[in-house]
Automatic annotation (TrEMBL), chains A, B:
GO terms of biological process kind: riboflavin biosynthetic process
GO MF terms held by the record: 5-amino-6-(5-phosphoribosylamino)uracil reductase activity; DNA binding
Protein name as it appears in the record: DNA-binding protein
Residue ranges annotated for the Bacterial bifunctional deaminase-reductase C-terminal domain, each copy included: 54-188
Keywords: DNA-binding
Natural source organism: Amycolatopsis taiwanensis
Signal peptide per UniProt: none
Pfam families (UniProt xref): RibD_C (PF01872)
Amino acid sequence: MTQRVRVHCFNVSQDGIGAGEEQSLQHPFGLADPRELWAWAGATASWVNRTEPGGTWGLDDYITRDMTRKIGAEIMGRNKFGPFRGPWPNYEWQGWWGGEPPFHTPVFVLTHHVRPSLTLSDTTFHFLDTTPHEALKQAKAAADGRDVRIGGGVTTIREFLDADLIDEMHVAVAPVELGDGLRLWESPDELTDRYHLERVPSPSGVVHHFFWRR
Amino acid sequence: MTQRVRVHCFNVSQDGIGAGEEQSLQHPFGLADPRELWAWAGATASWVNRTEPGGTWGLDDYITRDMTRKIGAEIMGRNKFGPFRGPWPNYEWQGWWGGEPPFHTPVFVLTHHVRPSLTLSDTTFHFLDTTPHEALKQAKAAADGRDVRIGGGVTTIREFLDADLIDEMHVAVAPVELGDGLRLWESPDELTDRYHLERVPSPSGVVHHFFWRR
């Protein structure tokens, strides 16, 4: 099986915004209410961060249950790992996820400010100051034949799209307008020269956008 | 994790028919053209019987790629296993699937005419003359903590629905009318007293019906 490079369960507003401005420790998604973007995923039975029984088993759950299938590594931007910019004052920050991060694979964090690798349970974070191509090479080797997830945020996904390194992408478009923030696209149709695009409205209110290479 | 009892990728016509009358060796689906019911699944990249590269990676593929996830055993009716009725003249018939059946788990075949178990590659068929409850008990034990798929045909799914043993069910309704044959339902709404139901139209033309227990 070919190793694929996949984006899954990435969420944007109707105007294409995936996170607000002014990310901080209190506001991981900046000045945008992440509940408006993520509610559909949190309602499903299979959502990785679900802590209580219950949840839906319909269309949206097919999407969330697929997020970890055959994934052997993730690549993320520094701003998904934490709210800090510039050199690390120390290494106390260990990500948003506590002692049991939901990745369970090697995770490669792209940053101009590298630091030693960090292992929390069965997830190890590696910090790389390199190009998307080179990061992907390392992630593919670490994934041991499985696929690589490009985990976001917006800037990282844009870099990998611009370098034409993504094979398959799922983006849920939520029924809200945010106006300001980090923008994934002006319109998903920008990508249809390179990708097939299926738009599937969900009963939950989001519209799932499935892209795969032409 | 609770063991669940699931129906996946079962296909019916708009009038609820899953197979035609007069099943035979030449016509596994009886006097109905199975291509009309199955085309959506065969077009996907992840379809279990796909033999050539290619295929779609959109909504329909999310459904087909989920078919084998966490499945530890299947229960099927005798008519899914073969076109013969009554006592077995001999044991030459080994199912429709050749030497590499696509199940890769124990399969329990419900029949009034039992025969010795049959192993083909990593699939073993066991033949049981028993109730849905008892068959499920055996399949759950064999599934070793994983889920049990109720694989069809129509009669078997109806028996398990009537015994209230199914937790989750996906049925694709194809845009054809068949008129005669084995009928799963007059209308999917018959089940909404016991199940949530989401209807999701696919770009391929089928309407996916997702049921899960209330």
